[in-house]
Design a protein that fits this description.
The structure holds two protein chains of two kinds. Chain A is mostly helical. In chain A, 68% of the residues lie in helices and 2% in strands. In chain A, a hairpin with a 4-residue loop joins strand 1 and strand 2. The radius of gyration of chain A is 25 Å and the shape is globular. The model of chain A has no long low-confidence stretch (mean pLDDT 91). Chain B is mainly α. In chain B, strands 1-2 form a two-stranded antiparallel ribbon. The relative contact order of chain B is 0.08. About 2% of the residues of chain B have low confidence. Chains A and B meet through helix 8, helix 10, helix 11 and helix 13 of A and helix 23 and helix 24 of B. Chain A: This is NADH-quinone oxidoreductase subunit N. Chain A: It is a multi-pass membrane protein. Chain A: Keywords: Cell membrane, Membrane, NAD, Oxidoreductase, Quinone, Translocase, Transmembrane, Transmembrane helix, Transport. Chain A: Pfam families: Proton_antipo_M.
Chain lengths: 549, 639
């Protein structure tokens, strides 16, 4: 008797279990995401097992290598034609691999790398008890001002967890603009938001402000997420699917097999309109559009400045990427519904950001309102609903990211006894004392203002041109007016730096390590190159501007 | 071959860049770099010239397209160069005479510590002028035009430590701006009329365009030409421009700058041919200027200013000829070239005299210098004979042709213009003989103790006249050769006419008087002019202090009151205008601007109060925003 025969003596064969197909995952095409998330997990292990002294260098090494490798992977995919001819949807319909996704992922990874350099800066603050310190609290869990905090500082603790947190955030951001169904979108949203909430809370200086910023960001972010999730549920009710392609089909009027459980709701336009508005609202919150912008100044001001720079750049890229995909892939069929609404949002955002920035006295808050105004300009490009609209937004995002990180990196250099001297009055006469730093900051401000020969001009020109061609000429007029208003406060800072008498007890400019220098230099180079010779990058963005469906 | 054209401009441009950027390291060799690159440009020009001669007469236009400069839909501007017989003539004149002036300046500016910079500006001047004559469209021409303006500003004011030089530079620049406005308006009119400003399309479409339009364009071009070529009413800068170093005067008056206006008119011949009214104005401007300049030249005691008046007058001849249309274009250019030789020679000679006389410019303190400066005397003398139109020399051929052409215009106009040209010839003979006699003949009035020179002016003490070094006299000799033979050479078998005819066209007019009569009349005028000058300055001793003179003389000494006129009419009027504009600006414009700024500031202050720091308020605003977003989306569907 063989074994099977014996076996059959006391068992009866059941019906064979229905087989679940193993999901087919294109690991190669997802490699940028996988590398970054994998490295983040390695970072967690480093925290657990590597001795405290060696952690900083280990984490910096792992993060830098991972971001660079992921960037190389993006380039390799793009070179292989995944941005154009081979664009398709991977991972069982969850993630799109196409031009916009790869372009934005590349931008996010570079921004992450440059941001990483500012995270790792340890030469700006004076050494505490013989230990070099960075911008992050010695021990995030200790109560500010308490004995345990002092003990942690004395022991030379550092929060090296920021590196894996940064990687997790980057990982989520990589998925966000590539997400091709609503659930992936939501998961990616949370994956990159939660590390950012944490990162906001761990400033070394002004910790109470930092913690307040984090709590506000978390509360409001959770609130916005709830809207998004509810909107997703409504859209599912409308289309019977969370897949972008299916929803788009239903919006276009082709309802495939109606799910009996959803027969009552499917195709109900009220669900579509309300659901779409709510999902869009969640994304507008992330980009900081009026009236969902209130968190921006408080969080930008409170968060550690390197985090602010990274967040301001990369979050915007990821969120605009997701917004573009949602509006261009899922909802083009209802663009006559959303375009007027987005018009209003863009106008409010451009004017609101520019006008309120006029009276700001803190450089970080000023840059926060400036970022709101810029979100409005980018929205003008989004509204174009054309291929040019996509490419101009892609270009704008790339240009804007590096200016932003560079500008916030300069902010970390200007210091007095209380840490960074962010009050504008302290920047008076900076150009006399540190002409180079002031000149670099002036370059960034001119780029923000959109002065020709900077990347800001090329970007603004591209989005306004796309918007005008897309029939949104009044929007362009308002955009130019708000640019003029915005130019006022940018130029005012330049005037303050170069044409005011320095204050006797003014701040000093710290000499950074090569890390921050690299970040700032990269920002300047990108600003000038994209400003002087934008055509190559415009062409690149243009090639990358077709979404896969 | 056409690929060489850009090099013509590139060589001096490179020189300017190297010399101006190179800094003090190049002080020792800078002047040689400048001279070398200018000569290089001349050599390239000569190579191209030989190449052109090797082609048939209809096939002598070379086009080099370098790159597209401004590609904005229908507004297409290319950097394209056109080398044809007209621009070739100018290229050879500019680079040839220009190089000689470079060489001369090596000696003349030897003791100036900013000599390197001077040569940088000279090279810039050449590059700009070459761009002007080589451009294939008006917009590119405008770049060269402005470049010439800039370079002339820098050179006239080169001795900027002298307030008079700085003022003169500013004056030249400002007066030229008026002309530049004319050119820019002309270009705009061309663009709206023809949809292009490239030579080909513009001239090709002249046929189907209304005469009024063409007259407007022509008059604007004339205004531009008046500015650069110092024609009435924009002539006032030329005399003051003598504040620049003398080689600059030679360059401005002979090879560059003032010839630009004549070039512009001749280049735009297609437009002027179709706009007779504009042509008439051109001839009137030319005729008035040739008398104006001659009268001013008669009264000046400053040798350079006398020569400046002469330039104005001679350019007047050219403009007059250019206004005559196809009967005059060729002769305008021919006179321009011969004038380039003898006027450069005269100015370099004047510079040589000043060099030997402690920079004295007052001819009443010269006298009898022929013994001390034989080479300068001979070369200057040959230039003198050429300019007054002594038979056989350059000026004789070219000026005679213009006078003939003026009569050939026909009708009353022809008589008036021809008469003016004849009177101009007599005046030319007079003032040039006067210069010659006061400088090189008569008693030596510069010795201490003789008259007004006794006070030892300028602190230099008594001058010791001496001949200039070889590096200065050689260019003068070369130019003297040109002054003597160029006209004869050009006229031999109507060579110059056949050379230029394919570009400008040519027609014989119907002169009411025979060519021989005209020549005879010119000779009579010449003799009368010389004789009167001899009677006044040769036979009698020249007083060291200027006599009071007649009303006309006094007016001519003040440049026929041009500055007084400008001051009363333009400056006063301008001041009133600006004052009222400033008032409007302060009250109305600033009020609106500041009011807008203040209202935005107030709005900003109010809006920022919404940002109260409470998360709950932010959440409410988000909720409200979301509600509005949803409501608006629904509403859009409902409507």
């Amino acid at each position: 008797m063989n074994a099977a025969a014996v076996h059959s003596l006391w068992t009866t064969a059941a019906d064979p279990i229905a087989k679940i197909d193993a999901p087919k995952i294109e690991y190669g095409q997802l490699s940028p995401i996988l590398i970054v998330v994998g490295a983040a997990l390695v970072g967690v292990l480093v925290e657990a097992f590597v001795p405290r002294k060696a952690r900083y260098h280990a984490q910096l090494f792992v993060s830098a290598v991972a971001l660079a490798a992921a960037f190389a992977a993006v380039i390799a995919l793009a070179a292989d034609g995944y941005g154009t001819t081979k664009a398709h949807i991977a991972a069982m319909g969850a993630v799109a691999v196409d031009g916009p996704a790869l372009f934005l992922q590349g931008t996010i990874l570079l921004a992450g790398l440059v941001g990483l350099f500012t995270f790792a800066e340890r030469r700006l603050d004076p050494e505490a008890h013989g230990n070099r310190v960075d911008s992050f609290a010695a021990q995030a869990a200790s109560v500010p001002g308490s004995d345990s905090e002092k003990a942690a500082v004395k022991a030379g603790f550092t929060t090296t967890e920021v590196f894996p947190l940064l990687l997790f955030a980057v990982g989520g951001m990589l998925v966000f603009p590539a997400a091709n169904d609503l659930l992936t979108l939501f998961v990616a949203l949370e994956v990159f938001s939660l590390p950012l909430y944490l990162l906001c809370a761990v400033a070394r200086r002004k910790r109470l402000l930092s913690q307040e910023a984090a709590v506000k960001y978390f509360l409001l972010g959770a609130f916005a997420s709830a809207f998004t999730l509810f909107g997703i549920a409504l859209l599912y009710g409308y289309a019977g699917s969370v897949s972008y392609a299916t929803i788009a089909q239903v919006v276009d009027g082709n309802v495939p097999n109606v799910d009996p459980a959803l027969a009552d709701t499917m195709g109900n336009d009220a669900l579509l309109l309300i659901g779409a508005a709510m999902v869009v609202m969640g994304l507008l919150f992330k980009v900081g559009a009026v009236p969902f912008h209130m968190w921006t100044p408080d969080v930008y001001q409170g968060a550690p400045t390197p985090v602010t720079g990274f967040m301001a750049a990369a979050t915007k890229v990821a969120a605009f990427g997701a917004l573009l995909r949602l509006l261009y892939v899922v909802l083009p069929g209802m663009r006559w519904d959303w375009r007027p609404v987005m018009w209003a949002v863009a106008i409010l955002t451009m004017l609101g950001g520019a006008i309120v920035a006029i009276t700001q006295t803190d450089i970080k808050r000023l840059l926060a309102y400036s970022s709101i105004a810029h979100a409005g300009f980018i929205l003008a490009g989004v509204i174009a609903t054309s291929k040019n609209g996509v490419s101009s937004v892609l270009f704008y995002l790339a240009a804007y990211s590096f200016v932003t990180i560079g500008a916030f990196a300069v902010v970390t250099l200007v210091r007095d006894a209380g840490g960074e001297a962010t009050h504008l009055s302290k920047w008076a006469g900076l150009g006399r004392r540190s002409p180079l730093v002031a000149a670099v900051f002036a370059v960034f401000l001119l780029a923000f203002a959109g002065i020709p020969l900077t990347s800001g001009f090329a970007g603004k020109f591209a989005v306004f041109k796309a918007a005008a061609q897309g029939g949104a000429a009044p929007l362009v007029v308002i955009g130019v007016i708000s640019s003029a208003i915005a130019a006022f406060f940018y130029i005012r800072v330049i005037v303050l730096m170069f044409f005011s008498e320095p204050r006797p007890e003014g701040p000093t400019v710290a000499v950074p390590s090569p890390l921050t220098t690299t970040a700032i230099a990269f920002g300047v180079v990108v600003t000038v190159v994209l400003g002087v010779a934008p055509q190559y990058f415009l062409d690149l963005a243009n090639q990358a501007s077709v979404f896969v469906r | 071959m056409e690929n060489l054209i850009a090099l013509l401009i590139a060589a001096p441009l490179l020189g300017a860049a190297v010399l101006l950027v190179g800094g003090r390291r190049l002080d020792a060799v800078g002047h040689w770099i400048g001279t070398l690159l200018s000569t290089a440009s001349f050599v390239i020009g000569a190579v191209l010239f030989v190449g052109l001669l090797g082609r048939s007469a209809d096939d002598r236009t070379l086009i080099q397209h370098l790159y597209t400069w401004i590609p904005v839909e229908s507004f297409q501007a290319d950097v394209t160069f056109r080398l044809d017989q007209l621009s070739m003539t100018f290229v050879l004149l500019i680079t040839g005479v220009g190089s000689l002036i470079h060489l001369y300046s090596v000696g003349y500016m030897e003791h100036d510590e900013r000599r390197r910079r001077f040569f940088g500006y000279l090279n810039l001047f050449l590059a700009a002028m070459l761009l002007l004559v080589l451009a294939d469209n008006y917009l590119l021409l405008y770049v060269g035009w402005e470049g010439v303006g800039l370079a002339s500003y820098l050179l006239i004011g080169f001795w900027q430590h002298k307030p008079s030089a700085a003022t003169a530079a500013k004056k030249a620049f400002l007066v030229n701006r008026v002309g530049d406005m004319g050119l820019s308006i002309a270009i705009m009119l061309m663009f709206t009329t023809f949809g292009s400003f490239a030579f080909g399309p513009v001239f090709g479409h002249v046929g189907g365009t209304s005469e009024g339009r063409l007259t407007a364009i022509g008059l604007m071009l004339l205004l531009a030409a008046c500015g650069k070529s110092a024609q009435v009413p924009l002539q006032s800068w030329l005399g003051d421009a003598m504040e620049g170093p003398t080689p600059v005067s030679a360059l401005i008056h002979a090879a560059t700058m003032v010839t630009a206006g004549v070039y512009l008119i001749v280049r735009s011949s297609a437009i002027f041919n179709a706009a007779p009214d504009a042509q008439l104005v051109v001839t009137v401007v030319g005729g008035v200027t040739l008398l104006f300049g001659a009268i001013v030249g008669c009264a000046k005691d400053d040798i350079k200013k006398a020569l400046a008046g002469s330039t104005m007058s001679q350019i007047g001849y050219m403009v007059l000829a250019a206004g005559l249309g196809p009967i005059g274009y060729v002769f305008a250019i021919m006179h321009l070239v011969t004038h380039g030789f003898f006027k450069a020679g005269l100015f370099l000679g004047a510079g040589s005299v000043m060099h030997g006389m402690n920079d004295e410019v007052d001819m009443r303190r010269y006298g009898g210098l022929r013994k001390y400066m034989p080479i300068t005397f001979i070369t200057f003398g040959l230039g003198y004979l050429a300019i007054i139109g002594f038979p056989g020399l350059s000026g004789f051929f070219s000026k005679d042709k213009i006078i003939e052409a003026a009569f050939a215009k026909g009708g009353t106009e022809g008589w008036i213009l021809g008469g003016a040209a004849l009177v101009g010839a007599a005046l030319t003979a007079f003032y040039m003989t006067r210069v010659m006699l006061m400088t090189f003949f008569g008693e030596e009035r510069w010795r201490t103790g003789s008259g007004a020179a006794a006070d030892g002016h300028d602190g230099h003490g008594e001058p010791h006249p001496h001949e200039s070094p070889g590096i200065m006299t050689i260019p003068m000799m070369v130019l003297a050769v040109g002054s003597v033979f160029a006209g004869f050479f050009f006229n031999l078998g109507d060579r110059f006419l056949h050379w230029l005819e394919p570009v400008t066209g040519h027609s014989e007019g119907h002169s009411p008087v025979s060519a021989l009569t005209v020549t005879g009349a010119t000779m009579v005028c010449l003799v009368v002019g010389v004789a009167v000058a001899w009677a006044q300055y040769g036979r009698k001793p020249v007083p060291a202090a200027a006599p009071r003179g007649s009303l006309l003389t006094r007016a001519a000494r003040r440049d026929l009151l041009q500055d007084d006129f400008n001051h009363v009419v333009l400056v006063r009027g301008g001041e009133h205008l600006t004052r009222s504009l400033v008032y409007v600006d302060h009250t109305l414009v600033d009020g609106v601007v500041n009011g807008t700024a203040a209202s935005f500031g107030g709005l900003s202050g109010r809006l920022r109060r919404l940002q109260n720091g409470f998360a709950r308020s932010y959440a409410v605003s988000m909720f409200g925003g979301a509600a509005l977003l949803v409501a608006a989306t629904l509403l859009m569907r409902a409507v």
